Amino acid sequence: MTVAKQNFNFQKIVAVTGVALFIVKMGAWYLTNSVAILTDALESTVNVTSAFIGLYSLYVSAKPKDVHHPYGHGKVEFISAAIEGTLISVAGLLIIYEAVKNLLEPQPVGKLDYGIILISITAVINYLVGALAVKQGRKNSSLALIASGKHLQSDTYSTVGIIVGLILLFLTGMAWLDSAVALVFAFLIVFTGYRIIRDSLRGIMDEADGELLGRLVVLLEANRRENWIDLHNMRIIKYGSTLHMDCHLTVPWYLNVYEAHREIESLNKLVNENFGESIELFVHTDGCIDDSCGICQKEGCSLRQKPFKLKIDWSVNNISDNRKHKAD
Hints:
Order of helices and strands: HHHHHHHEEHEH
Number of domains: 2
CATH architecture of the largest domain: Up-down Bundle
Distance between the termini: 50 Å
Low-confidence stretches: none
Strand order of the largest sheet: 1-2-3
Structural class: mainly alpha
Helix content: 55-70%
Number of helices: 9
Strand content: 5-15%
Largest sheet: 3 strands, mixed
């Protein structure tokens, strides 16, 4: 099963879970007449909507490449995540509005014990499914799945706040407590939405992933071959669960086409073994020049023009430069 298919199937679970928990929360509101629980249920409508948006985006991103989309359809996940982050933020603002309204005009509630039990069950299920979605999304580099998981987790945080408020209300009879606690968690929800929007915009704008580049550079530096004289102009672009990496690899100028291709295959194998098949590698080979001799560690080269001077350790900064490295 492909990575895209795995993400799509897991998002189905997220969508079905969202619908089921929304029904349970509406039942809890009907029993208690609690505005706080109604607020939680309203936030769940966003869960359901965003879950199906995420499902559609993963369906689209799983489509194979075609003439009009040579890099695939993975970018749709960033758009989906942006919409979901916006919905999360709007839900948080709506919760703030309802909480303030309830503080000013407290509503009578009843059967809080049943409401607390039902809402607690939804919180546990929400968090578990959300954590699994984030784990699966990070494993398969799916921003849409990560966004769905974080959305479920943020819903859990607000639900926990509401549970705390309901318990305090149940014990003390102070009606303002549930709204006050829900208000605190509403701001957390808004912040979560902001972070998802920010991450999606980074993907749409093809912002460099410093953490990913760092791990990749460490791997390549630790496994350098003597014919890998230099590596530069490295870039990584994310298309959903697929990563496209391109770079320039400097090899001895006298290698024939077959030998140079073998070096590329070695580089590709190393990356795929450590990062999975989700990375598509495009390597342009450059022949070394006289100035390359100063950083070339190849021993026994009969065509060396200059003596070796120093080893340049690859880093995120120097491996991204669009120029061959030199000893001075």
